[in-house]
Amino acid sequence: MPRRSPYGVFEGASSDCAPILCALGARVRLVSKRGARTIPVQQLYRRDGIDYLTKRPDEILAEIALPPAGRWKTAYRKLRRREAFDFPVLGVAAALRFERGAVAEARIWLGAVSMAPIEATEAQSALRGRLLEDDAIMEAAGLAYPRAKPVDNTDFAVRYRKEMTPLLVADALRSLAESR
Question: What predicted TM-score, i.e. pTM, was given to this entire model?
């Protein structure tokens, strides 16, 4: 089981913020006495349950920079034990940009189903150039399924969390289709 992080919301395995920031294209600035570096937020994480951040011990996270929202539409869905505040056992962040009614760009990131946020690249590719209709949504949701590789770190069954992945992806995408 991953150790608890002193960095709170940036803990990769069970964070709400990590997949959302990845989907938004955020960058983080890390500062130390040696200088500063700015990296895409997804490069902050590694797939290691113990040593899961690329942040050096002497660095502090000084800034989170978000690109302009522009015409991006976003959605986040979360599977959790309680309805009140709780960490996710599965998180889905979706960001889509539309042109002439079709999906021009798609970013879908999964959280809490691996040691770090996972980009659902095949699902993203399936949406590009298409209208956000049910067939495209279901295809993308199905393509996100194999990307989820939950670890046994909650009281939810690993298989259940994996099986919920396409349902939450589809729900997030449907909410974006309805908000247009």
Answer: 0.88
